Amino acid sequence: MDFGLNENQVILRDSAREFFAGECPMAFVRRAAESATACDLQLWTRLVAQGYTGIIVDEAHGGVGLGIVELVLLMEEAGRALLPGPLLATVAMAGAVLDGCANAAQKRTYLAPIAHGDARSTLAFVEPKSGWDRAALQLTAKNGRLSGEKLFVPDAGAADTIVVVGRDGVYVVDAHAPGVSITPMAGIDLTRKLYAVSLTDAAAEKLDAVAGLDRALDIATTALVAEMVGGMQRTLDITVDYAKTRKQFGKPIGSFQAVQHQCADMYLETESARSAVYYAAVALQEGAADASAAVSIAKLYASDACRTVGNRGIQIHGGMGFTWENDLHLYYRRAKASETMLGDATFHRERLAHAIIDER
Amino acid sequence: MDLTLSPEETRFRDQLRAWLETHAPKNWEHRRDESIEQHFAFLRSWQKTLYDGGWVGISWPREYGGRGASLMQQVLFWQELARVNAPPMANVIGLGMVGPTIIAFGTGAQKARFLPGILSADEIWCQGFSEPNAGSDLAGLQSDGRLDGEDFVVNGQKVWTSYGWAADWCELVVRTDPTVPKHKGLTVMLVDMKSPGIEVRPLRQMTGEAEFTEVFFRDVRVPVENVVGKVNQGWDVSIGTLMHERGTLGAGMQVTYQRNIERLIALSRTIERGGRPAAEDPVVRQKLAQCYAEVQIMRANQMRAFSRISNSGVPGPEGSIQKIFWSELNQRLQQVAQELLGPYGQLDASDPRSIDHGAWSYGYLRSRGNTIEAGTSEIQRNIIGHFVLGLPRSY
């Protein structure tokens, strides 16, 4: 039993940190935010070259076959850099679902191109009245074709395929096929664009094993929480730097306890969310009995913590923190969108309550 | 990261399980109604039983009478004790703080003299740190130690001394040089509580009990060889002790909290709200889930911290987040208990209508002290601000 990172994991984390620092500085993030899809194809090529798109895909399908812990370390670094574009949607959402639900032939068709960098993908889940509640989904296939509307689909504008979760199964549609209409939604997060995907008698292939969906969504949620933790860490780092240099009353504001204690709470919240998501990752990796509960615990805690960390960070920056020019609002926006994505704190508290109250 | 037990850890756990099966006291909780002395004698004999079985000081080096096992095995030990609802050990301060301090800073003679008694509970320890005018500002303490021949002569008063009423020995910090800046004139020494000139008075707390004491020192002679570390370098030794306190005290707590939240979940099935079990009330469910989640996160935080200590060998200032987390979580958990129990939450053990023998009204009041004892939440946040995040000192 060990809760530290092994040598290879440390190398992966450090090289990802270095990669994103070089390839994804804030000037790049801002340019991407102003573009239509926030997906830069040159950067995507380099992500593919790093093996990041195949991180959890097995070697038989062109991936590098690493585990959930490694995925979490990668996404944490992506979150720290506020990486724009469809890495999460392609690898951790669509990729995890394809990995968990597709048969061998479907994996060759849909998953291998993701690992190889020939295709980007995303996951369409939410319907107008469903939220992230799977039991409330309505969409069903008729004669192998899908009609209906999916909302809040991340990065669909940059996707080649869309994995669609319906009431009666999981499907893959070609994003460019007839009957698939993708229109932007004006979300708060400028660096992860959201879309409405309208399906009208769209051709769809049903994935073989829907039983794998729960675990796949748990993996996606864990990856998202890791990304949130990275964003929290960056918000903390920026804020501590500011508190050390900004002077009022002739002293750095970081010497005032009212400011220090907010920073200490940001640290506590960030570290606690990190502990929770590392535990969830290793529990999922090892198939522990409490893995699903651990995922909900990580998401409910991080959903609240990423908001409070952002609030504290901006508060400490004073007026500067409220400006467009300061980078914090870009993280704050991502944090708010991530808070609800794949289920907010209330959703996951109820999911956990079901596990610990009703199922025992 | 690896949640599975290594063959060695599995062997350790199975051995311990089998041993506990035959040796752990069962149905001992009614014994809390005994007098504090009687109850303490029981805890002391339980620690002695563990010691005779080789189960005390799991992660202490073998040469000092420990088991020489990993911190992770220490964690497994706590988990297994919790699983069978075993009583706590008597020598909490000795095992968690004084022992590790002597191992880190003590002389060979001190290690040989004191460590076995800590493990076996033959000698119970207390810690003389806080004073009436030195709480958070510990380095401002005024108890005075003056060299006189081969002894220091100690005068002063300590307060909030846990187990002072039971202690045979005290890890005491006193000012030995009043002419230098406050952090530089302190010395840590080991004091026999039976020395002439020591008076221990109970300090009654808001729960009604007297867990703590005030200890008065009047011309108490302490041999120079009982100094831990160097004279006037007691601040570093004290900080070492306090970091152990922050890092390790929470480890036992997690187990208690887990039991408490499981108990609240069970109670929620029988307590009614709006004509149906509280377990079906969405607000109650949200609150129970939040507490349950935080207890698991506390454990995950501790596991990460233990892995870090395993690599570095010493607890660092990050231990302050454990202290903040366990103390503030307990207050939240006790409040959720109060909300769940409704008016019954306020009843103490003497009322036949009380739930769980008054444990929840007691727990509510006792948890109020958690964010004050062992370093206030404010001091812990100062420590994080300065020592972890590198912000300028605020005082």
Topology:
The complex is a heterodimer of chains A (360) and B (395).
Chain A: H1 7-23, H2 26-34, H3 41-49, H4 68-80, H5 87-101, H6 104-116, E1 121-124, E2 141-142, E3 145-154, E4 161-165, E5 170-174, E6 180-185, E7 194-203, E8 205-206, H7 213-245, E9 247-248, E10 251-252, H8 257-285, H9 291-317, H10 328-340, H11 345-358
Parallel strand pairs in A: 1-4
Antiparallel strand pairs in A: 2-3, 3-7, 4-5, 5-8, 6-7, 9-10
Helix pairs in contact in A: 1-4, 4-7, 5-6, 5-7, 7-8, 7-9, 7-10, 8-9, 9-10, 9-11
Chain B: H1 7-23, H2 36-52, H3 71-83, H4 92-105, H5 108-120, E1 125-128, E2 144-148, E3 151-162, E4 169-175, E5 186-192, E6 198-203, E7 212-223, E8 227-228, H6 234-270, E9 272-273, E10 276-277, H7 282-312, H8 319-341, H9 359-368, H10 377-388
Parallel strand pairs in B: 1-4
Antiparallel strand pairs in B: 2-3, 3-7, 4-5, 5-8, 6-7, 9-10
Helix pairs in contact in B: 1-3, 3-6, 4-5, 4-6, 6-7, 6-8, 7-8, 8-9, 8-10
Report the radius of gyration of chain B as a whole number of Å: 22 Å
Question: Helix count of chain A, per DSSP?
Answer: 11
Q: How far is it from the N-terminal to the C-terminal residue of chain A, by CA?
A: 27 Å
How far is it from the N-terminal to the C-terminal residue of chain B, by CA? 40 Å
Oligomer: heterodimer
Rg over alpha carbons of chain A: 20 Å
